[in-house]
Amino acid sequence: MSAPLNPPIRDWRGLRVWLVGASSGIGAALAAELAGRGARIALSARRQDALAEVARRCTGADGVPLLLPLDVVDADGLRAAHGRILAEWDGIDLVVWLAGDYTPMRADAFDLTAARRIMDINLAVFNGLDVLLPTLRRQGRGALAIVSSVAGYRGLPRSLVYGPTKAALNNLADALYLDLHPLGVGVHLVCPGFVDTPLTAGNEFPMPGLIGAEEAARRIVGGLEQGRFEIRFPRGFTLVMRLLGMLPHRLYFALVRRFTGCDKVPAVPARDEPSSG
């Protein structure tokens, strides 16, 4: 059996974990799961009232969760939250970056304002790296888990902006692993399929392999405990997506069109030609 790519987490008791994007969905479920295992947790997201509700449900934690409301696009806010964590804990054992946004979008309804919002939020992990990397490198231990998506494996319908941002996170995790692993710092890439969360609630299409947020949280914890680099679930659906991503373009496009019906795109409306006189 090959050795794990990251140090396995053997015991969660007292482990210092910062969850960024913990007010709902997978983040909220993961907070409850880790608190129940004895981890010390810090919770960040924009909605302070939602964070307080998540903290209330985190029974069994080692102490009261730290509530650090912030907007991930605000680099100064992240820096302040990071500083408070170091003041309280004198270090960080694991950061799980869950913050993200999703709006279905296709080429016939491109919205630049929405696209920029999605990019700003989904790529705000770089704001996090600005404050986290010096700490992790100085410690020579700890880990960073980035929650991406199978939508980042290859282009998909309705994912004109979301998919490319997740592809960027997949690439980022690879690069971070190469840089940080020699220093003793772990890097994990979490690639869920469809999970029942507020972000997916608006999908108007069948979601194969849909699982609940609590199940997703357990899968993430299991992957961290095994020291896996890529933690993907559910296994069957994500394996199919992985295999599809390896196909030649011609075959990949044909299969995606067949199974998603994405050829049904409204015709481009004619534009009024400018007057020549």
What does this structure look like?
It is a single chain. The longest helix is centred in the middle third of the chain and has 19 residues, at 162-180. The protein has helices spanning 25-36, 48-57, 75-89, 112-122, 125-139, 162-180, 213-225, 235-245, 249-260, and strands at 16-20, 40-44, 66-67, 94-97, 143-147, 186-192, 195-196, 211-212, 230-233. The chain is built from nine helices and nine strands. Helices cover 43% and strands 13% of the residues. Mean pLDDT is 89; it is low at 266-277. The strands form two sheets. A seven-stranded parallel beta sheet has the order 3-2-1-4-5-6-9, sandwiched between helices. By secondary structure, the chain is an alpha/beta fold. The protein has a single domain, classed as Rossmann fold (3-Layer(aba) Sandwich). Belongs to the short-chain dehydrogenases/reductases (SDR) family. Pfam families: adh_short. This is NAD(P)-dependent dehydrogenase (Short-subunit alcohol dehydrogenase family). Keywords: Oxidoreductase. InterPro entries: NAD(P)-bd_dom_sf, SDR_fam.
Feature tags:
277 residues, alpha/beta, Rossmann fold, two-stranded parallel ribbon, 9 strands, NAD(P)-dependent dehydrogenase (Short-subunit alcohol dehydrogenase family), oxidoreductase
Short synopsis of the structure:
The chain has 277 residues and is α/β, with parallel strands linked by helices. Helix content is 43%, strand content 13%.
